[in-house]
Design goal:
The complex is a heterodimer. Chain A has nine helices and four strands, in the order E-H-E-H-E-H-H-H-H-H-H-H-E. Chain B folds into two domains: 43 residues, no CATH class; 259 residues. In chain B, strand 1 and strand 2 form a beta hairpin. The N and C termini of chain B lie far apart (46 Å). The longest helix of chain B has 27 residues. Chain B is 53% helix and 1% strand. By secondary structure, chain B is mainly α. The chains are: A mainly alpha, B mainly alpha. Chains A and B meet through helix 5, helix 7, helix 8 and helix 9 of A and helix 3, helix 7, helix 8, helix 9 and helix 11 of B.
Amino acid sequence: MFDEKRAVVVQRAELLCRASTRRDFLKVLGVGGTIIMLPSLFTACGDSTDNNVTNPVSTTYTLDLSNDTGILNYAYALEQLEAAYYTAALASAGFAALSANEQEVLADLQKHEVIHREFFKTVLGSSAIPTINFNATTVGALTATRSVLLSTSQLLEDTGVSAYNGAGKYLTSAANLLVAGKIVSVEARHAAAIRDIRDGTTGRLFAGDDVVNAAGLDVKAEPSTVGGAVNSLNVVVGTIAIGTQPDSGKKTADQPAPTPT
Amino acid sequence: METPSLLDTIEPELAERIAARTEDIRNGSPARPGVVAALGLASVPIALAALSTDLYGQSGLPASIKGVLDFALALEIFENEFYKAVLGTSAVAAQNAAFAPVRALAATVPGAVATLQQIQKHETAHVATLMATGATNVFNLDGTTFDFTGNRSATGGGPFAKATTDLAFLLEVAQGAEDTGVRAYKGQAANLMSSSAILEAALRIHSVEARHASRIRRMRRAAAGAPSSVRYSGTVRGGGAAAAGATDAGPNPTAVTAAFNLIYGAGANSATAPSEANTTHAGVDIMSLAGAQFGIDAAQEAFDEPLDRADVVAIVQPFFIPTIS
């Protein structure tokens, strides 16, 4: 999933405007390759805006999960995804088709996820990974109807819960673990709310048997599993890659977030 | 994606010992019941944790971790017995009888009984999982050791008695119990860091409790009895009793309000256990995040807060007839 089939290196912003670079770019995207942007490009671009759902420049966002900063960046990447998704969702046809009560949920979630994103950005400071670019077309397709909007929201929230539950053990600072704990329960509340909207009348989907196992334990996934799931959504312009894996001695078996049915 | 065997990811020597011991137990070698239960559940982290205890003996579980697990078990037994009484499945006939009126009311709301059953199923599983991990029922708790009216008396009569006859009030209490659980686990996570398998199990229980609390908030709001501060997103707005969104504090409102103040307010040490109204985390003031200016409500909702053990004891002691600590 993180194979680098082919790479194009973009050193300067103006190269993006050249026909030859554009052709390479498209060819590489066609084979699922990787576009590498050197730091000089970011200088040229200056500070990009948040909620990047339109910028077409593909990037590999590489995480070093061998330390707390890397784990927090992993959380920051997930919060960027959620924040960008819900920000796009609020202007979508799928959102317009929701009831007022359901719209309240999505509007709350958008605010909370943007807060989480900006919180991590501030905490990480100069150690933060770049702002991730998202594909407006693929994100748009995942918000086009009430059905796909809610099922995608469920997947994102359950994935968030599984990611935090799987990553907490890699944090070495109690303060960082507490921060993750303060956020994961909010993600779990979100997941239950979205699931409950989709439930109908069974009264059980909020914490269904598809996410809580016979031992009463919620979903949990290792970063490599979460990274693969996020990349397979095809909403990141580029790839989220793990450069350094976390402590293998702490790795446990996955119970990843299920695909909503 | 390939899922590696857990045994591939731990020390080879330990893996061999675990594999051999697992085989022994499957072949009839005596082991503590918790270990057998964990193996039967096919829950790998828990089986590992239980086997570790089995391998190294009870002394192998550090006292600090054992203490957290024992405390968590007490809370889970409390929750489990509460929902069993509500559902009429307690071993104590008087508890079942007490909640019969509210049980009949829940049966008229689509999905309500199923939700309570789903939650109770999880609390039972949490009890089993914690015991399999090495927790001990140090307070000798069972269905007879609780007074769900909050009077520490076998005959009840406390400020929460209305929960047996009023569905909206019952759900207020259930929400308080679940949110207390979320805060309790969050406060103890740091004490489990020396055992990554047990920490992970605790985190996975913690998020289940949060799912429960979210659903109960949604049920309360949908029943039109709760104010809009009880969010359909299932999140907690504000601090202290206001965060409960309780429009009905029963016949003894002073006591009920005091209880909700403990559940959603700051603990004895407000540095380690801030109110749910707190908006400063890791030194970052959420209200001053330039890219996320949504006002105080969203800032409070976006983060949950921990409680210290003594704070949780103060909340739940009225419902436990024996003294806990």
